[in-house]
Specification:
The protein is of the alpha/beta class. The protein has a single domain, classed as Rossmann fold (3-Layer(aba) Sandwich), CATH 3.40.50.150. The protein is built from 8 helices and 7 strands. The chain has a 7-stranded mixed β-sheet with strand order 3-2-1-4-5-7-6, sandwiched between helices.
């Protein structure tokens, strides 16, 4: 059984300098895929608040909410986004009313949730009919996966629960819980990190877009099929 207190303690530590998290350009890509954001948006597992900050900046009329298991992360998000409404909360038990939101983000979150199905049921409950869910998860189909798993640090708090999803797996999971994927693409690299090889990767992605599902991360936009 996963000890969530240990996970919270680990993420509280990650909330202290030096700050970790996805680069802003990744959040910009997520917003590009999400399209126009209107009404109320919830960022589950908001972390340092970068995605909410960029959402509010790009769509100033939205009403932004965030939640995270870690009180330290909530404080970080609140300091970056004083207009956002924050809640320290578990993705499996969201403290929001039914049909509350037009958009929900779960970016680099679902892979750390012990009961992903329960979390998706909660998202479905708080998301309005035809509301949109944006999910980003690490990709088990990534070309570099095996080498990465051999070399990555083993003492991170998210190691207590970290599930890499294959493209077919995450799409099937979303459909099982009532979400219809409308756009599936990749984020970050296929194999190389930068330089000329990375430019060659971009050319390959242009010529064969299906390769995006072999990128390091998957980004899926879905509609709530209520």
């Amino acid at each position: 059984m996963v000890n969530k207190k240990n996970i919270i303690r680990g993420y509280d530590q990650l909330g202290q300098p030096p700050f970790l998290g996805m680069p802003p350009k990744f959040h910009d890509l997520c917003l590009k895929i999400a399209g126009t954001i209107r009404g109320k948006v919830l960022d589950i597992g908001c972390g340092h608040g970068t995605l909410l900050e960029r959402t509010i900046r790009r769509f100033p009329g939205v009403k932004a909410y965030g939640c995270d298991l870690s009180s330290v992360m909530c404080s970080r998000t609140r300091s970056m986004n004083p207009l956002a409404l924050m809640a320290q909360a578990d993705a499996e038990y969201l403290p929001f009313a039914d049909d509350s939101f037009d958009h929900v983000f779960m970016v680099e979150v679902l892979e750390h949730v012990p009961e992903a199905g329960q979390a998706l049921l909660e998202v479905k409950r708080v998301l309005r009919p035809r509301g949109r869910l944006l999910v980003a998860v690490p990709n088990r189909d990534w070309f570099h996966y095996d080498r990465h798993m051999r070399s990555r640090p083993k003492d991170l708090p998210m190691d207590a629960q970290w599930h890499w999803y294959a493209a077919a797996e995450i799409k099937a999971l979303l459909k099982k819980f009532g979400f219809e994927p409308t756009k599936v693409t990749g984020g970050e690299n296929l194999y190389f990190g930068g330089g000329l090889p990375r430019q060659m990767e971009r050319l390959a992605l242009f010529l064969a877009p299906t390769l995006r599902e072999r990128s390091k991360r998957l980004i899926i936009l879905s509609a709530n099929e209520k």
